[in-house]
Structures are given as structure tokens and as C-alpha cells.
């Protein structure tokens, strides 16, 4: 199981690119509390040795970071940075639990992709590092620059470690990570984490019910009707109709919307409606989560698994016997922007153009496809560039729909909808609306006699 698309995006927004100008080294760090960053000590060792600040690169500019804790390599190889010049940033949710085979996701600023790159791993077990244990990772590529990146456990929804090193930088052999137990205890991180995430519900909003059960402290979501997934899709009838019309006309479809616009819920509703409208069976509708697919081999294996096969080389014979009619491509932006990603996009596009395979693609992304993969091939457009020239975009919900959504959540709750009226007087994306309402609900609950 992968993270929700919102959690995937939120983790990326919690990361920063770190640079030490004196030796031009760079790596990754991530926010763990207001003004507090965590990274690997070897990423910033030159800055520590020369007592100079570290450059923190964000979209809005470069900010100085001051090293406040430095635990040198080889173990545990951790550093804490303080930056008081950046406000209103998100923070990861830390949870140390990890078990054999857990799927893991990371994001950092590598030598090949300094603007950001994703990586997935599986947990293989502990490594005895002499002074303590490291987390041993497999089935993923850890490039230089990923050091210091957060390691998200897809089972718990929490960050369980910090990427430290590669086992082979040019292959998917894996790497090693530092467990959370090594973080210096002087900053009372559990209290800082609890305080932050109870005031800012973004991360906890993204967790499913099972993951929320792993949260060790009592949180507002327990009795707040504005947390959790919506039971039904509201306000996207026109978008759903347009998607179905494109598919009925024999075309592909691109769905574009920002984080929190309801893309995942829309895909779920679309799956239900195509089965009803076109009479397609579940076996004829495949779903691919590109947060967890890192190569063409893995892509083919996912489709083969869906079709009931075992090996990727069976795919052509399987498709002749069990044709796929629709592939739902979730979080297309999670595809690597380089050669491996290009191979996957080219293969998928070729599959959809095969005259013996009546396959249609529905691609979901935060950006338009013609902009998302501009670097695929400088000499030509991306294989996905003309998939759907007029994508279905998800605008903010109109005030009337926002009211309907709030009313749906308040059914049986203690407070009247009038107490939330100012929040749905303007158009909003659903996640933004629900978060604002959740905050209001907690304020009302605290003030209630």
C-alpha cells in the first residue's frame, strides 16, 4: 500500500536541499519541528568544521541554517539545523516502528536530479554498525545527495529513519538509514511533534484509519468529523461526465488538479461508473500507483499480477487472453523524469496504441502532462505530451458545493452549520476546506462550556 497522493506531496514539501558553498557539497534535510531540520552529519561536515552556516534552498530563496547538534560519522551520522528565517513550513510526522518487508518511500536532491527525485525501498532488517544499528534497505537506488532524506514507512504513514548511504549508487541494490532512536534527545521532539501536529492537521489528515491508530498520543481527529476520507464524491459531476465522454469516444484522459483537489476519490468514483456505464469487469480495469513503481520491469510485473500471471514476459499472451480496457495511472508525477521514467511512459503509450489491445489511459497528475516531463527527450515531445490535449482540470469547489460538503460532515455533530458559514462563502479545494473546518471545530469544542 502506498501513501495517499496528498501524503506523498506533503513529504516532498517537508524536504529541503542543503548546500555547503565552501566545498560545493549538497544533500537533503527535512523539517521535524518549527525551525528545526534533520540531516546526516556528513552532508554538513565542512560547514561544521569551519563554523559556517549551511545554505537551505527553498522555492522562495536561500536561507542560512545553523548547526545545533552534530553527531559525526560513521555512527550515528546525524545533524540538527536551526533556521528561524523560514515560517509556516510543514513538518514530517515521526514514528519509529518498522518491520521486515515494509515498503518505504523517500525524496531528496540527488546528483543526477538536484531539483528532487523519488526513491522506494523495502526494509531488509538491521545492520550492526558496531556502535549501534542501522536500517538495511533493498530494492531501490540511493544516489549521492539522497543522504539526509526522510524515510517514510508506507504501512504506518510516519517517517521512521534518515537515509545515510548507498549499497551501490548505480543499481537498485539499496542503501542504509539511521533509525529515529539516534536523534538527540535534548530537544524533547515527542512534545514538539505532538504540539505541531495537533495544531496543524495536514499530515494526520492524509493518514487512513489504520495508520491513524499508530499515532501514540491522543489527537483531535478522534472526535472531529472533518478528518478522514469523504464517503461520497461531491461537486465533480461535470468533470466525471467529461471523462466518461472522452472514454466513450475512444480517447485517453488526463486529470489535472492540485494536491487536495479530490483526485483519488474521483478515480474511485470513475472506476465505479465505467463498470456501470460500459459493462466493464474489475479484471478489465487496472490501477497503477507510480509512487511504488521505479522501473519498466516493475511496471510490467504490476500489470501481469493484475492479470493473474507470474512473469513480465507473459504480458503479451496474457493481454490477448484477458484484455485490459482501462488503466488508471495515479500520481503520474511520481514517475522518474529521466531515462527509466521515459522508458515506462514510452512503453505505456505504445501499449495503448497497439491495435490488438483496446486500452485507454486515464492519467492523474498535479501538472499538465506536456509540462510535467519536458526533459524526456530534448528533440521531441514526451510520449504523454499529446495524450489528452484538453485535460479535465479540477477547479476549487463552488460555495454551494462547499456548503454541501460541510453539511455532510456535520450530520449528527454537536455544532450547527451556521458556525462554519464564513469558511464556505468562497470557492475552495476540498482538502483546504476540510482542514479549515477541522480547526474551527476544535476551537468550538474547546470553548464549549
Key features?
Thrombin, subunit H; Rossmann fold; single chain; 18 strands; six-stranded antiparallel beta barrel; globular; alpha+beta; 13 helices; six-stranded antiparallel barrel; 29% helix; 449 residues
In short:
The chain is α+β, with helices and mostly antiparallel strands and 449 residues long.
Fold and architecture overview:
The chain is an alpha+beta fold and 449 residues long. It folds into two domains: 1-223, Thrombin, subunit H, CATH 2.40.10.120; 237-393, 3-Layer(aba) Sandwich (Rossmann fold). It is built from 13 helices and 18 strands. It has helices spanning 5-14, 45-50, 189-199, 202-206, 209-212, 237-248, 263-278, 296-306, 315-321, 339-352, 369-372, 399-410, 430-447, and strands at residues 15-20, 25-33, 36-39, 54-58, 61-71, 78-82, 103-108, 117-128, 133-138, 140-141, 150-153, 158-166, 173-179, 253-256, 285-289, 326-330, 360-365, 392-393. The strands form three sheets. The protein has a six-stranded antiparallel barrel with strand order 1-2-3-6-5-4. A hairpin with a 4-residue loop joins β8 and β9 (133-138). α6 crosses α7. The longest helix is centred in the last third of the chain and has 18 residues, at 430-447. The two termini are 42 Å apart.
Amino acid at each position: 500500500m502506498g501513501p495517499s497522493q496528498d501524503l506523498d506531496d506533503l513529504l516532498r514539501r517537508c524536504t529541503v536541499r542543503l548546500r555547503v558553498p565552501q566545498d560545493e557539497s549538497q544533500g537533503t534535510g527535512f523539517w521535524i519541528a518549527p525551525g528545526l531540520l534533520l540531516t546526516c552529519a556528513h552532508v554538513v561536515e565542512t560547514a561544521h568544521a569551519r563554523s559556517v552556516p549551511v545554505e537551505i534552498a527553498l522555492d522562495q530563496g536561500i536561507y542560512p541554517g545553523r548547526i545545533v547538534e552534530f553527531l559525526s560519522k560513521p555512527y550515528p551520522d546525524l545533524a540538527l539545523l536551526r533556521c528561524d528565517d523560514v515560517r509556516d513550513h510543514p513538518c514530517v510526522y515521526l514514528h519509529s516502528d518498522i518491520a521486515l518487508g515494509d515498503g518505504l518511500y523517500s525524496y531528496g536532491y540527488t546528483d543526477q536530479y538536484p531539483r528532487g527525485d523519488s526513491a522506494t525501498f523495502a526494509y531488509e532488517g538491521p545492520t550492526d554498525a558496531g556502535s549501534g544499528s542501522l536500517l538495511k534497505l533493498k530494492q531501490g537506488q540511493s544516489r549521492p545527495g539522497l543522504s539526509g532524506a526522510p524515510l517514510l514507512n508506507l504501512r504506518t504513514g510516519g517517517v521512521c529513519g534518515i537515509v545515510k548511504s548507498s549499497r551501490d549508487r548505480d543499481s537498485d541494490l539499496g542503501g542504509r538509514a539511521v533509525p529515529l532512536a539516534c536523534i538527540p534527545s535534548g530537544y524533547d521532539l515527542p512534545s514538539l511533534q505532538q504540539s505541531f501536529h495537533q495544531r496543524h492537521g495536514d499530515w494526520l489528515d492524509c493518514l487512513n484509519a489504520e495508520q491513524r491508530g499508530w499515532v501514540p498520543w491522543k489527537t483531535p481527529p478522534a472526535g472531529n468529523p472533518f478528518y478522514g476520507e469523504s464517503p461520497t464524491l461531491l461537486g465533480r459531476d461535470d468533470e466525471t461526465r467529461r471523462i466518461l465522454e472522452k472514454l466513450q469516444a475512444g480517447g485517453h484522459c488526463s486529470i489535472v488538479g492540485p494536491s487536495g483537489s479530490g483526485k483519488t476519490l474521483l478515480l474511485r468514483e470513475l472506476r465505479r461508473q465505467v463498470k456501470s456505464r460500459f459493462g466493464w469487469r474489475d479484471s478489465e480495469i487496472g490501477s497503477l500507483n507510480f509512487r511504488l513503481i521505479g522501473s519498466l520491469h516493475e511496471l510490467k510485473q504490476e500489470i501481469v499480477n493484475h492479470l493473474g500471471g507470474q512473469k513480465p514476459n507473459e504480458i503479451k499472451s496474457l493481454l490477448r487472453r484477458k484484455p485490459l480496457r482501462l488503466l488508471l495511472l495515479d500520481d503520474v508525477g511520481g514517475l522518474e523524469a529521466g531515462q527509466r521514467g521515459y522508458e515506462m511512459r514510452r512503453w505505456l503509450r505504445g501499449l495503448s496504441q497497439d491495435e490488438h489491445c483496446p486500452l485507454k489511459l486515464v492519467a492523474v497528475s498535479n501538472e499538465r502532462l506536456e509540462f510535467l516531463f519536458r526533459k524526456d527527450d530534448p528533440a521531441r515531445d514526451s510520449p504523454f505530451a499529446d495524450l489528452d490535449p484538453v485535460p479535465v482540470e479540477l477547479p476549487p469547489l463552488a460555495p454551494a458545493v462547499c456548503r454541501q460538503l460541510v453539511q455532510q460532515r456535520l450530520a449528527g455533530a454537536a455544532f450547527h452549520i451556521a458556525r462554519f458559514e464564513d469558511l464556505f462563502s468562497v470557492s475552495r479545494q476540498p482538502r483546504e476546506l476540510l482542514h479549515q473546518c477541522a480547526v474551527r471545530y476544535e476551537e468550538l469544542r474547546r470553548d464549549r462550556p
